[in-house]
Task: structure prediction
Amino acid sequence: MKKKMIIGVCLLTLLIGALLIVQRIISKDTTVKEPATTGKVTESQTNELQEEEDTRLRLCFSCADMSNPYYAALEASLRYEVNENDAVLETRDACRDQDLQNTQLEEFASSGADAVLLIPVTTDGADDAIKKLTDMKIPVIGLDSRNGDPDLLSCFVGSDQNTAGKLCGKDLVKRAPEGGNILILEAASIGSISDCISGFEHEIAGDGFVVADRSDCAGSRENAKQYMIDRIAKQEEIAAIMCGSDNMALGVLEALEQYNTEHPENTVHPLIYSVGGYPELKEKLAADDPALTATVATSPLQVGQDAAVAAFNSIEENKKEEEILEKPYLINRYNIKLYGIDGWQ
Result:
């Protein structure tokens, strides 16, 4: 009898506990918390944010080669200016592939870009794709390197590369008035480098200089280094080396440093010129590296800023603008302190 009572009390206790749990569940507060307390955005807020972004201007940038430090600096300046104007910048790297770049331009057109900014992989390889964009009333701003048909562009923004080459040529004539053999490292498919080399050759014409050899290194540091290693092996007398870009000049310097270290009894120090103003190259000038003579600085920061302004003007005013060319200037070991070595111009 006593055992039955104990069992009954236990069952009653369990039943009361179950009832209390059910009551708590039924009475639990089911009020939705405010987004501010949860940190989450409601569906209506998401739609509002999406609508706001859809109204912003969308600028699309196809760059020939984003691994190039100069172009990376230009893109950063361009992006800053675009963001400051509450617009969106979409950047694509063509990786030095013209077919890939043309595909990117077609995608910009189909996705409804408000303006396209372009550093072409080759001089005339993008012209057909540019024409499709202009036929759709999408302005195209050319940057740094010219395309084949300038009339297709709403504006061109870059550095005066022809003058940059001339500055190198003028300095060379002063330093080596007797002339001599020279090497030229160029890139026929890159308009900016071709303009630079043309200016250089124009300036030294008739001053006793002979182009002993020229190589299309396609703007590549590695190609320039290998070319120079092969050339030094011929042990010929070279007065100067003209590099169409700092990237190639750095490759040449690596080859010369390697050779001079291995052959201290027969070091070679030709006059080396290039164009770009790379921070890495300016460091070598500041260190008074005997293998480096001068670079002509151009300004990727100013080009990026002016390109953004040109793009916005083309969208708003729907008209072509005059080209914008930044003025280059020669930097050597004597004036390097005026410009600094820790950044771009």
Remarks:
- Residues 169 and 201 are 7 Å apart (CA to CA).
